[in-house]
Design a protein that fits this description.
The protein is an alpha+beta fold. The protein has two domains: 89 residues; 160 residues, Gcn5-related N-acetyltransferase (GNAT) (Aminopeptidase, 3-Layer(aba) Sandwich). The protein contains nine helices and eleven strands. 29% of the residues are buried.
């Protein structure tokens, strides 16, 4: 399964809204997940265009929509809120040029090493991915269960593996136990996006996380990439501090919004507004 979304215009063929189904989340939760981009819609038309598209979503099951607004475009938030979108998190986009980093970085392994994962690692990687997070946007949304959000992260690492992302396992040298993982994928010819980083909760300290990330960035440079990018939730102060300490330029604050409509009552088969 490709982890790249395919956006289409609404209304077709040349509408200003761009919408995409999110197949991995739709498959996991059992109802449609969508992402919408609305930056091209004039502000005075945005609320109407969103309402028009939302009215086309299936009404016989739950539906979920995610969208984002950069801090410079928060004047559009009113149109989202008018259509029952609600804010869930703010995240930052971060960028690192790899050549100067690779020249200056000399990772200190602190008893652990990074390696390319194999299919045999998947059970342990799923376990780590499902237990490492508590403040991602789907964990924060009370319309979704915490258990479902954890299952989604377990499936995420498997999807990353199947989609051909570079998946790295972090092993403790003494015992050989896998205690962390990092994945990244190509988004532009020389740009890699770090999509998932997880480490066992008992080892979520700088002594383990910093050398793991340093080694992953060196791996990224050795694979021929020139730039590394990632997104960091404002709820994760530790990751923000880590990124800046490694030399990432952290900017472009972005606010994430969700829209959720539950399934209709089972006894009527119809949705009640």
């Amino acid at each position: 399964m490709s982890l790249t979304l395919r956006f289409e215009r609404f209304p077709a063929p040349g509408g200003l809204l761009r919408v995409a189904s999110v197949p991995w989340d739709s498959q996991h939760f059992g109802f449609p997940f969508f992402q919408v981009r609305c930056e091209e819609v004039p502000l005075d038309r945005l609320a109407m265009e969103l309402a028009s598209w939302l009215s086309t979503l299936p009404r016989d099951r739950a539906c979920f929509v995610h969208t984002t607004l950069p801090a410079s475009r928060l004047s559009r938030a009113g149109a989202l809120i008018a259509n029952r979108f609600y804010p869930v998190e703010t995240f930052y986009e971060a960028r690192l040029e790899l050549a100067p980093f690779a020249r200056s970085c000399n990772p200190k392994w602190e008893g652990a090493q990074l390696r390319e994962a194999t299919e045999a690692d998947l059970p342990r990687l799923r376990e780590l991915s499902g237990a490492a997070f508590s403040s991602l946007r789907l964990h924060l949304d009370t319309n979704l269960s915490r258990e479902g959000a954890d299952r989604r992260m377990r499936q995420w690492i498997e999807n990353s593996f199947r989609a051909g992302e570079r998946v790295l396992a972090y092993d403790q040298r003494l015992t050989g136990e896998t205690i962390g993982l990092i994945t990244y994928r190509r988004t532009e010819p020389t740009v890699a996006y770090f999509s998932l980083t997880a480490i066992e909760r008992s080892r979520q300290s700088a002594g383990f996380v910093v050398p793991m990330f340093e080694a992953a960035l060196r791996d990224c440079a050795e694979q021929g990439y020139q730039t590394a990018t990632l997104r960091i939730s404002s709820n994760n102060r530790g990751s923000l501090n880590l990124a800046t300490s490694l030399g990432f330029r952290v900017d472009n604050a972005v606010m994430g919004f969700h829209w959720f409509r539950p399934a209709p009552p089972a006894d009527t088969g119809s949705f009640q507004t």
